[in-house]
Specification:
Helix content: 40-55%
Strand order of the largest sheet: 3-4-5
Order of helices and strands: HHHHHEEHHHHHEEEEE
Shape: elongated
Strand content: 5-15%
Structural class: mainly alpha
Number of helices: 10
Low-confidence stretches: 247-321, 337-348
Number of strands: 7
Mean pLDDT: 75
Radius of gyration: 30 Å
Distance between the termini: 46 Å
Length: 357
């Protein structure tokens, strides 16, 4: 699914999901699963797998925390753009990632420096790794704190009225996390010796793996489905909703049907979507030559009575006349190595006072 999303990153509802963070989330989920394999005794703890502290603290625990922290970072990006009206790119993204790394690494570093009898120990006679109840409780409390932060951000994002509103997906994601965290809490308290109980170890690995994958499906599933079966229709509706949500300052949305760009979607790069059609809704003005004897001056202002204009109306200063209000133009496809409109003004008048661009 991640690979498909990257190949279809030009589909704007997918691009808006911030694929770089989703990819990091997926990698964290994979490493979380890898840490569960030796930690829960699914392989013989010999050789490299016998290093219990490494596998439990620096792989399983660390990337379980990183997974939740990336969710927080992603929701914070939405909060910063739509609630705080600030961009989330450059230093904002870098600082967020650094804070995530430092907090999680510090927690794991403390566990590494403490004596094995206080944290993680290897039970060679059972070929299993075990952690003290105190260390397990500390890890569980830290997870609850992380997901409490997620809950606060979901609450703050509840009123976003735009194509970026993910309130329902976020609630579903949070429910999955709470179910998993509750199962972890009950497992470690009710079954203190679960590391030596094979059925419970298998259950724990399966629940964690299912949680990590379901959350990504909740984030990407809908836009990927729409990309597969209703690509053009859904993208059009998505863009229309984007322009009507009243956050133009945050979105940096143009009035054209194409070329919508937001501060959130631009986090990955500074490139904007290119317009694919002439935008008659904006005041794109043209510099045209004056019409000789058809012009007259009155009070210092230029008045033009141009019979080729609609209804023979009078317009002041034709230098600022929008293209959409003129009907004396013929638009031709540009020709390589030939005269173009990008010289000084327009070419000479054609027959009957018309011009060619």
């Amino acid at each position: 699914m991640i690979i498909y999303a990257w190949f279809n990153r030009s589909f704007r509802p997918i691009r808006a999901k911030k694929m770089s963070l989703i990819t990091l989330l997926h990698i964290a989920g994979i490493l979380w699963f890898v840490g569960n394999i030796p930690s829960n005794g699914h392989v013989k703890l010999v050789g490299a797998f016998a290093k219990c502290k490494f596998w439990i603290i620096w792989v399983r625990v660390l990337f379980c925390f990183v997974y939740a922290a990336i969710i927080i970072l992603r929701f914070y990006a939405l909060d910063r753009v739509f609630n705080q009206n600030k961009s989330f790119k450059g230093w904002a993204t870098a600082i967020g990632l650094v804070v995530v790394i430092i907090i999680n690494v510090l927690f794991c570093l403390v566990g590494q420096l403490l004596d094995d009898d206080l944290t993680i120990m290897s039970m060679d006679w059972l070929e299993a790794c075990d952690g003290t109840l105190e260390y397990r409780v500390a890890c569980i409390v830290f997870q609850w704190v992380l997901w409490a932060g997620v809950a606060v951000l979901i609450y703050r994002l509840r009123n976003i009225q735009s194509s970026f509103n993910e309130f329902r997906e976020s609630l579903a994601l949070f429910v999955v996390a709470i179910i998993t965290l509750t199962e972890t809490t009950v497992m470690n308290i009710a079954f203190k010796n679960y590391p030596v109980m094979m059925p419970h170890r298998i259950e724990k690995t399966m629940v964690d793996t299912l949680c990590a994958n379901v959350m990504i499906w909740l984030i990407l599933g809908h836009p990927i489905y729409m990309c597969l079966f209703h690509r053009r229709k859904y993208e059009t509706q998505w863009l229309e909703k984007l322009t009507k949500d009243g956050h133009k300052n945050a979105y940096e949305v143009s009035s054209a049907g194409q070329g919508h760009t937001t501060a959130y979607a631009k986090m990955e790069d500074e490139s904007a979507f290119q317009n694919t059609q002439l935008n008659f809704g904006t005041m794109d003005v043209m510099a045209s030559a004056f019409y000789g004897n058809q012009t007259s001056y009155y009070g210092g202002d230029l008045i033009v009575d141009d019979p080729t204009l609609r209804s023979g109306e009078m317009f002041q200063n034709p230098d600022t006349l929008p293209i959409a209000l003129r009907n004396n133009l013929h638009i031709h496809r540009p020709v390589l190595n030939g005269p173009s409109m990008y010289t000084n003004g327009y070419p000479e008048l054609q027959g009957e006072g018309r011009r060619v661009i």
